[in-house]
């Protein structure tokens, strides 16, 4: 046995591992590992910022090479300069304060970071499927996509996945100018910008959505419609897509259909007990029409499904006519409208009447023929539920009369009118007592409302800095009793009386219902004013 151990030209006396460790600790490395790690990180960071600067619309084409070289050495400093220049340009163009725009852009960046709820593992299992069940990879024609295509597919899936994770109801992709597109999400009824993309990248994203939705990607001016599905794990979501050519490019609107509508009930709507009892009473009647009115996005279809869930579909033949079918109702026959195949509301309603229905659900009344068939069906022994786009109950009747429906048919068929809006609920984690003016305090005291229970929005991480989380319905019910029906049937010009009712009452019923929610601390005065006025 030798008396010494030789390692890399160094000799150590025998003495075990402790002596060897002590000896090795005296060896000086020719480099600092921490400095090497920082250098490698800086190189990769600079390479990333070179790519960002290369796609920046602020850099002229002739100077891209110079800017890329400068960014390669200076890293984020060039990109920071470009960011400040872009902010200054926006400030000059909109005449808004520089620091206000800067604060808003930083806030949007933070919101984008907070919005990433799905992990990369979740994004990888999110699959976009067309109506025939083909995935986006199969539509593009290759499972091993090229790098550019794979990046676009990942961006498309991430955009859809983020919208689902944030409970969005709509995704809007539209051009801000010739070089920048914005992606906005409608969450709880309010739009917010979540991302800005360069035009080239966003056009590729739009084409991938149009491809999976069965639309013509070569046609950018003519309006088109389509639809697709998304699957991740056990969850399936359906989407409706509409495109249109606009001034500086192409606009895309993606509606996320409410997958929970099929299991929604009246109890979950948050209606007062009195209103819910009235609704349930008319739902159990064998005949008559229940008409729900409100603007787009006011929850009319969800309320329609909630009423259908109150019906015993085993003992009553329920047939729905929808455009499109938003949720599956067990034990119900659901028919989807397809205008290209000449399957319209009017034609489908005529055939439905020959199928022995007890309950008929009409997704939307759009024309005179559909309105007349539905009202006659309600008059001849069927329970008809329908929706119509109108502001209030009186304007719904005015629209039906303007469509050409006779006052006699209207009075005989219509039983109940429901005007509806959706109010955002205050976030329970961050809401605070509202700061009211003296006039507001006096007004609440005269009405006997405790102003201490009135809250306002603040904003926290849970509610995505908005101060609101979730929505609830407020309704105004107009019962068509015998006195009202007789007056409308006998009146020579009921439109004048209805217009007078609209000017006198209008949305008063909705305001009163919304004010009760404000007094209960569920929503805020600002939200009530935003939705109802």
The overall average pLDDT, rounded, is: 81
Q: Percent of residues in beta strands?
A: 15-25%
CATH topology of the largest domain: Rossmann fold
Return the structural class. alpha/beta
Portion in helices: 40-55%
Looking at CATH, the homologous superfamily of the largest domain is P-loop containing nucleotide triphosphate hydrolases
Total DSSP helices: 20
Provide the CATH architecture of the largest domain.
3-Layer(aba) Sandwich
Beta strands, count: 18
Please outline the helices and strands.
Elements: E1 5-7, E2 10-12, H1 17-24, H2 33-54, H3 64-74, H4 76-94, H5 98-114, H6 120-125, E3 127-129, H7 136-140, H8 147-165, E4 168-175, E5 180-187, E6 190-198, H9 199-212, E7 224-232, E8 235-246, E9 249-256, H10 273-283, E10 288-293, H11 300-308, E11 318-322, E12 333-336, H12 345-352, E13 359-362, H13 368-379, E14 383-388, H14 393-402, H15 407-413, E15 414-426, E16 432-433, H16 438-446, E17 455-456, E18 468-479, H17 482-490, H18 494-504, H19 508-519, H20 525-531
Parallel strand pairs: 10-14, 10-15, 11-12, 11-13, 13-14
Antiparallel strand pairs: 1-2, 3-7, 4-5, 4-9, 5-6, 7-8, 8-9, 15-18, 16-17
Helix pairs in contact: 2-3, 2-4, 3-4, 8-9, 12-13, 13-15, 14-18, 15-17
Describe the model.
This protein has 533 residues and is of the alpha/beta class. The chain has four domains: 1-30, no CATH class; 33-94; 100-256, Beta-Lactamase; 261-423 and 472-511, Rossmann fold. The chain is 42% helix and 22% strand. It contains 20 helices and 18 strands. The protein has helices at 17-24, 33-54, 64-74, 76-94, 98-114, 120-125, 136-140, 147-165, 199-212, 273-283, 300-308, 345-352, 368-379, 393-402, 407-413, 438-446, 482-490, 494-504, 508-519, 525-531; strands at residues 5-7, 10-12, 127-129, 168-175, 180-187, 190-198, 224-232, 235-246, 249-256, 288-293, 318-322, 333-336, 359-362, 383-388, 414-426, 432-433, 455-456, 468-479. A seven-stranded antiparallel β-sheet has the order 3-7-8-9-4-5-6. Strands 12-11-13-14-10-15-18 form a seven-stranded mixed β-sheet, sandwiched between helices. It has a two-stranded antiparallel ribbon with strand order 1-2. A hairpin with a 2-residue loop joins strand 8 (235-246) and strand 9 (249-256). Helix 3 crosses helix 4 (76-94). The longest helix has 22 residues, at 33-54. Residues 4-12 and 115-124 have low confidence and may be disordered.
